[in-house]
Amino acid sequence: MLKDSDFGHRPVLLQEVLDCLNIRPTGIYVDCTLGGAGHASAILSRLQAGGRLIGLDQDEDALEAGGKQLAAVDTGASWSVHRANFSELAATLASLGITAVDGILADLGVSSWQLDQAERGFSYGKDGPLDMRMDTRSPITAATLVNTCSEEELTRILRDFGEERYAFRISRAIVAARNRKPLETTGELADLVRGAMPAAARQEAQHPAKRTFQALRIAVNQELAVLETLLQKAPDLLADGGRLCVITFHSLEDRLVKDHFKILEKPCQCPRDFPVCVCGLRSAGRIITRHPLTATPEETAGNPRSRSAKLRCFERRLEAGSGTTGGADHE
Q1: Strand partners for 57
Q2: Which parts of the chain fold into alpha helices (H)?
Q3: Does 72 have pLDDT greater than 90?
Q4: Taking the complete model, does pTM exceed 0.85, yes or no?
Q5: How far apart are CA 174 and CA 184, in angstroms?
Q6: Which one of 10, 45, 254, 305 is most buried, by most CB atoms within 10 A?
Q7: Residue 256: helix, strand or coil by DSSP?
Q8: What value does the mean pLDDT take over residues 287-314?
């Protein structure tokens, strides 16, 4: 059983998130990645009677810990938590009879608690089973991938999801090792990756296995595909003036969010030399954060994992033609 103190959670960019959401006291807000409910609790505390907070998470431990945290918030608003991947947001809201919300938050980071639990298999610094599943109901683990994927597929995963420049060398080493004995632990894989890399690469500041573990985690949980689904569906679930906030932790996620927000704001596909738009595609709203918001030096000093966090925000506008002038810049 999870202890109250087990799921430690330090919400990144908390004040920035609250500012971007522009919380309405009687509004409806969704935290798609509940975790330890750090963000969700702060949102709930700003709601009053008539307001509502909905928390989603695919991790059962997160739901238990997050629910306890929300129960401790002094508020007149209502709240509920649901075991669901955030790609299931539309279906979850429909099951609750909700057609539009005032704000949606997705914090795409792996929680400190998950990283620190060796048995979850996320960390190259703690020896444990090669798991990496956010949802333990899923049949696919990191061990499944490293022991069954072809060398070519492993190379693609490491290159595309980890941006690993030594993807071929690492994949070849994985296949050679598993031919002798299946890979079973994070320690085995971390040591193998280190040994497969050139000596100079092993001297870099970051751990040699960081990109490989990121790539496998993304593949196991289909993180980019799930994010793509959220970005496609979430804007239509926002009320007029509602905002979508996404916190990313690596360039692949950030690029997806940035590019999708640009298309939402300016979807026109007409050639640039056309004097007027004839394609008929209308703006869905405006980008609030022209540049992503990042952690202050004070926050990174207290929470080093916030260093790579980037927050982007989009506001839905139902008026025809809205969003073409853009929003305020944030450096």
Answers
A1: 83
A2: 14-21, 38-45, 60-71, 89-95, 112-116, 142-148, 151-162, 167-180, 186-196, 210-221, 223-233, 251-265, 297-302
A3: yes
A4: yes
A5: 12
A6: 254
A7: helix
A8: 95
